[in-house]
Amino acid sequence: MLKTNKIFLMVTVSIIMAATVAFADGWRFPGEFEKQERVYLGWLSKEYVKGYQTDDVLLEIVQNLIPYTSVTICVPEKSQQKHVEALLKKNNLSLKNISFQTIPFTMLYWRDFGPIFTTDQQGRKSIADFGFNCWGYFPQSDTQARIMERIDRDIAKQRGLPSRMTRLVSEGGDRELNGKGTILVTEACEFQRNPNLSRDDIEAELKEMLGATNVIWLKKGTVDDDAYNVSTLPGPGGKGVAYRSAAANNHMDEYCRFVAPDTILLAEVSEEEAARGPVEQENRRRMEENYRILQNAVDQDGKPFKIIRIPMPETLFFEVTPQDEAYFGLVSFPRFSDGTAFPVGHPVQVVPAQSYCNFLISNGVVLAQKYWHEGLPQEVKKRDAEALSVLQKAFPDHKVVTINTLGINFGGGGIHCSTQQEPYTGK
Q1: DSSP for 43-64?
Q2: Given a cut of 80, is residue 12 above it in pLDDT?
Q3: DSSP character string of 360-380
Q4: Angle of helix 54-65 relative to helix 78-90, nearest 10 degrees?
Q5: Cβ atoms of 378 and 321 closer than 8 Å
Q6: How many CB atoms lie within 10 A of CB 167?
Q7: Selection from 58, 62, 119, 29 nearest residue 365 by Cα
Q8: pLDDT for 63-116, tens place per residue?
Q9: For position 332, what pLDDT does the model report?
């Protein structure tokens, strides 16, 4: 009996010691505004809508990043790498701060399925390995989901880093962290991805994987970022119908971001804008509900947040034909959840995934989105300028660069979605 008690005591002490070590060496996801070692950028050459090339947008992202940080361009095959290298050389870009990662993937938005780097107090790195189901559109057993779900583990193996797995289905753009323990998540996203998990289950996984200690739940994202196979939108001028060209399905980085550990940027729709139609009215309702939650929330130390509001872009409509790649995703859902039958074979109006919140913060620079070009209304240009003014005030120590991102917005994401930062630890 004495021997049994001794063994039990030794096992108990070992468990306690292991738990203490795990807590002391806990992993955290650094805030995006902390120093970075490199930025990963997904690069697929596509023309989702005729006349709008992803290459043009991605090239401009690289041009504006390499003076500030190293960039790893991620391509699915060697032929794509050669294409990108030729494009960089044609535009006189030095390859000094550029490397390539060749690994299979089929969708552009690297933040959502690529490596999620976490660090510990000793400056070591690990990669958090979340489940992936193509933004909630397909089961995890889907071929594309399986191809991209393993990318984080494969890169961890290549880099010689530990990979930590969770059953939680989650994408890099569906959450925001301040690096100090607070995480923002969206109910409409987290529960849609994980219908069999409770709120406590989800919080426990986020705390374990990302070092969160304080979880704040917002309600919904913007209407144009609802699942694109659920419903239509009012067409131009409120007449007819339009479709989302694609959508991340209630991602946080489309409407709410940390710009500092104590400061949150939140999208806003004015009362005047809300009077324009049902989409604007619903967006205002959702954003004001989220605003009230944030006003009553506190950070990991019990302190209130500073909240900055930023306008939402003017809604743009584009005609998409059966020959456009943006059409392929829509036609794969011939009947939407609300009963709408998609008019297969006929051109349709689509709304791209626009957002002024989908910016990337890196070392001394912020890459933000704009939308106006020749032929578009001046109201679009004015709204771009308003958003830029807000960002310049929010980032007084950074250079804010705006890029016309429509070429990648048609695929359902933006600058932030297409990139993923790796933190600098000095090791």
Answers
A1: -----SBTTB-HHHHHHHHHHH
A2: no
A3: EEETTEEEEEE---TTS-HHH
A4: 70
A5: no
A6: 12
A7: 62
A8: 999 999 999 999 999 999 999 999 999 999 999 999 999 999 999 999 999 999
A9: 87
Q: Which tokens go with 254?
A: 């489309």
Q: In this model, does residue 176 exceed pLDDT 80?
A: yes
Q: What is the mean pLDDT of residues 277-285?
A: 97
Residue-level pLDDT at 208: 97
**Burial class of residue 89, CB neighbours in 10 A (0-12, 13-18, 19+):** exposed
Helix H or strand E encompassing 205: helix 199-210
Q: Domain residue spans in the chain?
A: 29-423
Strands (E), 141-254: 163-169, 175-177, 182-186, 214-218, 233-234, 241-244
DSSP letters for 81-118: HHHHHHHHHHTT--STTEEEEE----SS-HHHHS-EEE
Distance CA 261, CA 31 (A): 7
Q: How far apart are the first and last CA of the chain?
A: 50
Q: Considering only CA atoms, which of 135, 328, 313 is closest in space to residue 245?
A: 328
User: Judging by beta carbons within 10 Å of its beta carbon (0-12, 13-18, 19+), is residue 150 exposed, middle or buried?
Assistant: middle
State the Cα–Cα distance between residues 257 and 269, nearest whole angstrom: 16
Q: Which residues of 5-41 are buried (b: 16+ CB within 10 A; e: fewer)?
A: eeeeeeeeeeeeeeeeeeeeeebbbbbbbbebbbbbb
Give the distance between the most distant pair of CA atoms in the chain: 86
Q: What is the SS3 assignment for 183?
A: strand
Q: What is the per-residue pLDDT across 218-236, written as a single tens digit (0 to 9) for each?
A: 999 999 999 999 999 999 9
- Which tens digit of pLDDT belongs to each residue from 117-173? 999 999 999 999 999 999 999 999 999 999 999 999 999 999 999 999 999 999 999
> Which residues, 6 or more positions from 339, have their beta carbon under 8 angstroms from its beta carbon?
none
pTM of the predicted model as reported, rounded to 2 decimal places: 0.93
Polymer length of the chain: 427
Indicate whether 9 pLDDT > 70.
Answer: no
Q: CA–CA separation, 267 vs 9, rounded Å? A: 55
How are strands ordered across the β-sheet holding 241-244? 233-234, 241-244, 348-351, 318-320
Question: Is domain 29-423 annotated with CATH 3.75.10.10?
Answer: yes
- What does the alpha-carbon distance between residue 184 and residue 414 come to, in Å, rounded to a whole number? 20
Q: Is 308 helix (H, G, I), strand (E, B) or coil?
A: strand
Q: Phi, psi (5° rounding) for residue 85? A: -60, -45
